[in-house]
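Fold this sequence, please.
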Amino acid sequence: MVQRLQSSMEATTGSKKRKRSYYSLAPHSKRKKEELCPGLAGILISTSDHERLCVSEAYNLLNEYADQLYGPEPNGDDTPSSGDDVSLKLAQEVDKLRGSEEKPRRFQAVDTGTKHLVFVKCHPLVDPVLLVHHMLSSVKEAKEHKARFCQRFIPVSAVCHATDRDIQKCVSNVFAPHFYLEKSILKFAVVYKARNNQDVNREEIIKTLASLVTMNGDYPHRVDLLNPDLTIVVEIVKGNFCVSVVKTSTNSKGTISSQSWDYQEIKLKEH
């Protein structure tokens, strides 16, 4: 009898151990964070060592200045209700909860897979270049600095795979409103930076971009590294090619500042 009791206790203990080890090895059902990928548009933001705080701060800054350009973000509370109709209110709340996960937000941080670099995806109705220009112009004019963790804001009009074929297709769409509709001769420069990518050749990329700007001689635009009208911004992050075209500004010393989206640069100039 004692022997049976001991064996049953050992069997129970063994099963508990097996269950514990099984559950400890089971994968957690954690929602996977969206990653930087082709088809997105948004803003690359560099930070020193506080990515979470940078994201939170970026949301506040971007929403503040986006409200000035586009108005407040709709929150779904504009549906008319009868006030005293409790069932209607409950139905509206249920619909709101059901659609909360599917509703696209104006800004959403995605994983870049690169340290000290954040990408905030923009809603299709938001122009990243226009927004960053408006934000930094307002900051410079008001001399009011609200960022502690966000260092540089780099607008990205389009993202594609860092392959020659994809780059040509993507860049042609980005360049069209800037270079292909303009009859006058424009001077341009390319600012290039690659992170976590050793496969892409910098000189080949710049050569490809220059040929696409002129469409192999069909447009008379020319390279001018000292005094460009437009700057083509290229950021390669792992296997992603990020590109935008921004107006070039000059700083107080008369030299070209392609980093017109640099928050820290503005901050240093004002102090």
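The first helix runs from residue 2 to 25. Helices lie at 2-25, 51-70, 86-99, 128-142, 164-180, 202-214, 263-269.
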